[in-house]
Write a structure and sequence with these properties.
With 191 residues, the protein is α/β, with parallel strands linked by helices. The protein contains six helices and eight strands; from the N terminus they run E-H-E-E-H-E-H-E-H-E-H-E-H-E.
Length: 191
């Protein structure tokens, strides 16, 4: 597997990959590869030029943990090479970019890293909701109250941290109740 991106999320994913038997990180690519310490990725081939690294390492798959603004272009390049890719969220910067990738003839080669949907009990909870409701859920609302100091509050109150919290919560609610449901989210930060 080749990792694209060398930031904190890429480092976290590389650590998780190291725990999976039979999965091996063989390469690391980032335009910032010479600007930062990448020793935490171990002894892997490194190159700022992704095409050159892919030609040299010939990976079975790629993990995209680069800046969100690069996801669309990089995913198209990987699809053109026939390489499956796990793409860190957010999937793309715009809905139009996401639609283009989702309707690509090889879209099944791409997977968004929504790992929480595979957490123990999630699928059982989803089935329990379907069984209890006896039909599809048509509307769901989610409110997250996270006063500062609460254990589940974002570590920083920066815009990106808040949007990431809301995005994950709304996505999980949508995945929990299934397709065809309108999901609305609200983030309440009052103390």
């Amino acid at each position: 597997v080749v990792m694209v991106g060398a930031g904190s999320q890429a480092q976290r994913l590389a650590r998780a990959m190291a725990e999976v038997p039979g999965l091996r990180l063989v390469g690391l690519s980032s335009p910032h590869i010479d600007d930062r310490d990448t020793s935490s990725f171990g002894e892997v081939d490194r190159d700022a030029d992704l095409e050159r690294l892919l030609a040299r390492s010939r990976p079975d798959a790629v993990v995209l943990a680069a800046a969100t603004t690069a996801h669309h272009t990089l995913a198209l390049r990987l699809l053109a090479r026939g390489l499956p890719a796990l793409i860190e969220k957010p999937f793309t910067r715009t809905l139009e970019q996401a639609d283009e990738l989702a309707t690509h003839p090889d879209a099944r080669q791409l997977m968004v890293a929504h790992t929480r949907c595979f957490a123990p009990g999630f699928l059982s909870l989803r089935q329990g909701l379907v069984d209890a409701h006896a039909g599809p859920v048509l509307r769901a609302n989610y409110t997250l109250r996270a006063p500062s100091g609460a254990p589940h509050a974002p570590a920083t109150w920066a815009r990106d941290a808040l949007l990431d919290t809301l995005y994950n919560a709304v996505y999980l609610l949508g995945a929990l109740v299934g397709g065809g449901c309108v999901v609305e989210g609200e983030l309440d930060l009052r103390a």
